[in-house]
Amino acid sequence: MSHLKTDNPVALQALMSEALFISKEKEITVALRSGDVVDESKGGEGAEFIYQGDKSTGVLFILRYPDYPYFSPQAEEAFLKTLGALNLSFENVAVVNLANPHNSNDFKRIMQFFEPTKITLLGVEPVSLKLPEIAHNAYMKGRIATVFNTFSFEEMFADVQKKRLFWNEFKTFIVS
Questions:
Q1: Among 28, 34, 62, 61, which residue's Cα sits nearest to residue 47?
Q2: How many C-beta atoms surround the C-beta of residue 19 within 10 A?
Q3: Range of the domain at 130
């Protein structure tokens, strides 16, 4: 098999299901899943955050999955079902994985960039973002956004009670 060498964006788009971004300054190539968004509006070092979805809706999900771009396949399926039950989708929420080394774990930068009004922490401990402690399946109202703290989907898969507690509280949080 020969190596394909091209920089033609149309040819690359036809051949690949992932988006490629090349930073000439650092000569780094980053391959992203289709649907990922790279925002370079802040300039300088390149993209501010790598995330999926639409940040303009004000609904943000923060997770920390080191082994996956966003979710494990099973967790992604559960996430999509959860969103669908509330007439939401990947297209009208934003999802950021803080395990991506490119993404900042600084809550102030997250707030400035995403400008969310509702934040769901999926398995991310609030103290890791320098937030006050928030019990699981509880939320804290701030001046700008309300933060809902819950378990990761893997924790909910292992304990049906955690899933039930999440669903009951999450429905109330997301529609309020």
A1: 28
A2: 16
A3: 52-175
Pairing of strands 94-97, 118-122: unpaired
pTM for the model: 0.75
Whether residue 69 lies inside any domain: the answer is yes
CB 58 within 8 A of CB 120: no
Query: Residue 142 sits in a domain of what CATH number?
Result: 3.40.470.10
Residue found under tokens 């809706």: 57
Q: For the beta carbon of residue 86, count every other beta carbon within 10 angstroms.
A: 12
Q: What is the pLDDT of residues 85-118, one digit of tens each?
A: 999 998 899 999 999 999 999 999 999 999 999 9
Residue 72 lies in a domain: yes
Beta strands per DSSP E along the chain:
19-23, 28-32, 36-38, 50-53, 59-63, 94-97, 118-122, 138-141, 146-150
Q: How much is the mean pLDDT over the chain? A: 81
Name residues whose C-beta falls within 8 Å of residue 78's C-beta, 6 or more positions apart in sequence: 153, 156, 157
Q: Domains in the chain: how many in total? A: 1
* Residue 126, number of CB atoms within 10 A of its CB: 16
Q: What is the DSSP string of 29-77?
A: EEEE-TTEEE--TT-TTS-S-EEEE-GGGSEEEEE--TTSSS--HHHHH
Tokens read off for 69: 């771009």
